[in-house]
Every structure is written in C-alpha cells, then in structure tokens.
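Dear support,

Our group has been running a series of protein-ligand predictions, and this particular one with uridine-5'-diphosphate is the one our PI (initials K.S.) wants archived with full inputs and outputs. We had some confusion internally about which version of the output was final, so please treat the block below as the authoritative record. The input we submitted was:
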Amino acid sequence: MNVLVSGGAGYIGSHAVLRLVENGHQVLIVDNLSRGHREAAAVLESIAPGRVAFEDCDILETERLAGLMTSHRCDAVLHFAALAYVGESVEQPLRYYRNNTAGALSLIQAAEDAGVGRFVFSSTCATYGEPPVDQVPIAETCGQSPVNPYGWSKLMVERMLIDRAGQARAGGSPFAFAALRYFNVAGADPEGRLGEDHRPESHLLPICLEVASGKRESMTIFGDDYDTPDGTCIRDYVHVIDLVNAHLLVLEALEPGDQRFYNIGVGRGYSVLECIEACRRVTGHPIPVTMGARRPGDPPMLTANPDRIRRELGFEARYTNLDEIIETAWRWFQANPQGYGPEAGSGR
Ligand code: UDP
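Confirmed final output from the archive:
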C-alpha cells in the first residue's frame, strides 16, 4: 500500500513508518516539524531509500494534502499529527481544537477529495475522562466524557469519522476507519534507530530516565494521596512497537464501510512509584524524588481492557513487562543523550 503518515517525524509516527516499510509499504510522511524531528524522517529515508518521502506540510493545508495523496497514489492515511499535552490543552484550548480537530477535518476532507478510503486515527483514553472505578479496566463500550480540551479535541474527530463512514455506507465515496484509543505509550525501537524526544518532556518514564542520566537533578511525584494501593496514579504502559503493530493489523483488516474502535493497552497498570522503582532497577541509578501536589486533570487509575482487539484481530502485546519497555527507552537515551540533536525539534 501507499500510505500517508501525518506526524511521521514524531515519536509514535516515526515508529509506525519504520514498521510500514518493514512490511513492504511505501510511505509519504507529512509533518510540520512543530513537534516532530526532520532527523527522525532522515533516519527512515536512509533505512528505506526510495520508499519513504517527506513533505514539510501542515495538516490544515487541505488542497496541498489532496494533491500529495493523488500524486503519491495513496491508499490509506495513518493520522498521528497532534498536540498531546493535557496541561497545555487547558492553557491553550483553541490551539488544540485548531490543530487536532480542525486539522483532522482538513485531512479527512483531503482524503475524500483524493478518493482515499482508509483512515486510521490516533485517539486516546483521554476521551473516556474519569470513568467510575467499576468501569476500570476500561472497555470500548465505556461512556466517553472527556475532562480536558485534549480529550474533547480527539473525541470530536471520532464523531466526524463516524459520520463520514455513515455517508460512505449510504452510497458516498468508499470510506473505512479505525480509531485507536491509546493508553500510555513508552519505549523505543529495540534496535536503537528511533526514540522519544519531546521538548519539553513531561511524561513520567522519560523524565525518570533524564534524572537517572544526570540530565535533571530530581523529579516530582504529582500526588501520593490518591485512592490507589500506594497513593500514586496508576497507568497502563504499552510499548510503542506493540502500538504500531496494532496499527498495521488494523490497517490491513479494514474493509469498506468499517468503523472500528480499539483500546490499545496491555491490560495491567503500574503506579508512579512502581515506574520510578523500575527505572532505578533498569538504569542502576538512584532517582531522587520529591513529593508534590496533584497535577490537575490526572485520573487516579487508567488501565485498558484490550479484549476487543485481541478477539477480533488476534493482537497480543509482546512487551508486557515494564522493565523491558524501559530497557529499550534507556538504550536509545544512552546512545542519544541529546535526542535527535541539540537543535532538533525546538518547535515553531
Ligand atoms: N507524573 C509524575 N511526575 C512527573 C510526570 C508525571 O508524577 O514528572 C505522573 C502523572 O501525574 C501521571 C503519571 O505520572 O499520574 C503518568 O503521567 P504522563 O504525563 O507520563 O502520562 P499521562 O497519563 O498524563 O498521559
């Protein structure tokens, strides 16, 4: 297949491109480099010369995108390009609706204009909001009621996709989509070719590794008074390789008219304290911590019930052990202490 990957220079998108070319597909990366790294795309171009192309293009540029899809004869879109910080979305909601919601609309429109009928969307467990404890682990049937603009900006896209698929079923141009609701994504390419490089970093595991490596002196635990066994928040950490494998399975299974929703997680949770302890074990370094206040908008416990994708597509996460996930991230981190370089991805 010829696949357009929006956000293909970012953390998850770049790993997806790698898996696509390993599976024999051709890829056009579209990225505005606001969060992604040109260097990551260059790594991919060198791994699969002639099978990866890169365009510095914003997903709001509908006409240009449609032209690119036509000239590259695209069969499918994998849509990763998005802003993904809950706190930032509260501070700058319109920026999130513009980039994540209007941007997705523009890309869906471009796909329609260019006759591209398969679409895989990076959604999020943040669309569930704070489900009642008796609904955790969360199944896809759980009600969706986001508690921040980030979650809303993604849920609105799910709605648009449902209606676009409905139009296709009613005789419009063919369209099938899947929305994958990610839990916490972590780890890196085990061969060390790609990794996670966010600026600034706000995620728990990379911050632990920055402290372990001496890049930061210490870190703060955001609250230890939650109603969980050790008082800190629990999350479900899925390896980026498992996540992109799920994308490939879904992409290859999509039939015209499909609308599919899948949770992507491992189905088991780790607390913040357990994560820090695991990072100490893997790196062999002490990780000094201070106890801080709760971070607004953090639900106490988010874990996935991943049964649907297991049942329907036979998906099994390969990395079910947190230490192994951290090992792959640590390997890339040690080999690339400056990430993709001192100047990379400083944003614009
Ligand atoms: N967290 C923390 N200290 C940090 C960063 C994160 O205690 O410096 C906690 C955060 O409050 C949450 C968990 O770690 O409970 C996972 O946060 P992350 O930002 O990695 O992912 P999120 O679940 O928000 O998507």
